[in-house]
Task: structure prediction
Amino acid sequence: MIERRGGHGVLVADAGHAPATSVASRPARGGRRARGIGSYKAALPRPVFLFFVSILFPWIIMLGPIRLSGYRMVLLATILPCLVMWLSGKVGRIRVADIAMLFYCLWCGLAIAVVHGPGYAVEPAAIIFLEAFGSYLLARCFIRNADDFRNMVALFFLIIACLLPFALVETLTGRNIALEIVRAIYPTFPDHPMEPRWGLRRVQTVFDHAILFGVVCSSAFALTHLVLGYGQSLARRWFKSGIVFLAAFTSLSSGPLSGLVAQSLLLGWNWVLSGYPGRWRLLLTTAAGMAIFIELFSNRSLPAIFISYFAFNEGSGQYRLLIWTFGSESVMNHPLFGVGFNRWDRPDWMSSSIDMFWLVDAIRHGLPAGLLIGLAFFAVLVPAALKRGLDERLQAYRTGYLIAMTGLFMVGWTVYFWNSTYVIFMFLVGAGVWFLDLPETAEPDRSASSRHRRANTRRRPPRSHRPRRQETADNA
Result:
């Protein structure tokens, strides 16, 4: 919901949608002490609000040779305060993911300096540090509990919902009205129309490319369903999830749509087997077994099979296989510092485009850069997945986050993230660190709980006086 405070509209969590838990012990903003997550309406931190809103206005602001944008100015204003908060321990202890992300930025800067020279490296190295570590730290420092997380998802959903009408007009008429409005105020990048699919234009809105619009929208699908939809009726939950799904679908891009399909399947698995605590262990074991079987007995590698099946047509799938094949060879030919921004090793007839986020850094800045960004990603996801002692609300939030990031991981093998999509991805990685800082509580004694339930059953009031059972979200 939107609440007016001090003359400014800020997004706040609706405490009525979530039961209180015992994991929030820090004071609420404005001097109020939280007696539990959901027991107060915490305002979305203003830097996070400005960061997301700036994505809607992709103006290009030139400061000499430096290109600025709205989100870069927000990151410039917040990077030093975030560094102070992080180093001082105000946002929890320093994590493996923090170090991996920092070293990733430093290694990219070193690699550029080695390949192109120290003078050339200053600007691109600073941009990588600002966009990667700055976006990660912004979430790391200002998404610190369940209320912050839910408010962030609520704003994310609101932005996508506001873009949906423009997306529908664009896909039906072929006219990018959203970008025209932004360009009328201040210069921005040009419209990038692509070949229609199914007689519809592939929607771009205020992003650099239709694929990027699809990636950003699809990344909010599971978050909207399990975080924003927690405690709401099934109809309201699916209505909001459907808005996100439709917005992502208008991009008509195979990468984002594959992410939507993956998230939908994982949400279905979570719902169908909600009563089985080991459902994720079963899924991972099955997936690992299938991967080993494919690698041992198939005439194609697992990445080749994955890339070929998640494409709109055979031609684009085959081309991505060529990117994987020659890109991997380029990494092995230049394993330490990569090729920088020079020509990577490929046939003359291939384009310079690398539609594979998880391969780009290894090609440009060496294998250490590719490994470090992967380490930063999984150093958040794996500990969050293994966290124990979370209540029902936190389990739902964690499940939504893990499914969303799994979708982004899969999309990253067929799409390259750049500009606003890149910083949103880095922000979302940092937005999951708060799960790691939650205190672990002891698992409940099931036998004692059963005895307690039986005792309460004997003391229940007549049916006419019993309160209605509240709806709950899917278990994680």
